[in-house]
Amino acid sequence: MKNFVFIIALAFLSATTFGQKVNFSGEWKLNEEKSELGYEFSLAPKAITVKHTKKTLDLTNVSEWDGQEYESKQHFTLDGEECENIGFMESITKSTALFDKKTKTLKIVTTGSVEGSDYTLTQTFSMKEGNMVVESDAASDMGELFETFVFDKQ
């Protein structure tokens, strides 16, 4: 009987864990020690504020470039429809964002052009051990840059 109760309790806890929803909302600060950043330079923001609803995602990134802080805001719908945002140097970017309920990940694919060079940025958001993790793959005619950003909740 004790084994039966234990198995039922374990099944209940497992179902609760699998049924949990991921929400990336919050204020996040880059943890450079846990992150895998580019050697020469990194595209990682110092901090991100995320507002995640069932249908949308709003990001406010705080980045540093050449000793100066920059703030950028992006709005995405989570239905796979293309969204336009302001990118680097006031360029227009086009993005699609999809939340995968099965893997509990959010994938954003952004394309744009800066000074005549086209690029594609793929970012996959997930939660691991209480941290927001962003796997970033930036590709342009100048090469590729793979990074993993780990953020601590503030």
Parts with pLDDT < 50 across at least 5 consecutive residues: 1-20
Query: Structural class of the secondary elements?
Result: mainly beta
* Terminal-residue CA separation: 45 Å
Mean pLDDT across the residues is 86
Q: What is the string of helix and strand elements? A: HEEEEEEEEEE
Number of helices: 1
Q: Can you tell me the CATH class?
A: Mainly Beta
State Rg.
18 Å
Total number of beta strands: 10
Tell me, briefly, the overall form.
Answer: globular
Report the CATH superfamily. Answer: Calycin beta-barrel core domain
Provide the β-strand percentage band.
over 45%
Describe the biggest sheet?
Answer: 10 strands, antiparallel
Whole-number total of structural domains: 1
- Read across the widest sheet, the strand sequence of neighbours is 4-3-2-1-10-9-8-7-6-5
Share of residues in helices: 10-25%
Architecture per CATH nomenclature, i.e. the level-2 architecture: Beta Barrel
Task: Enter the CATH topology name.
Answer: Lipocalin
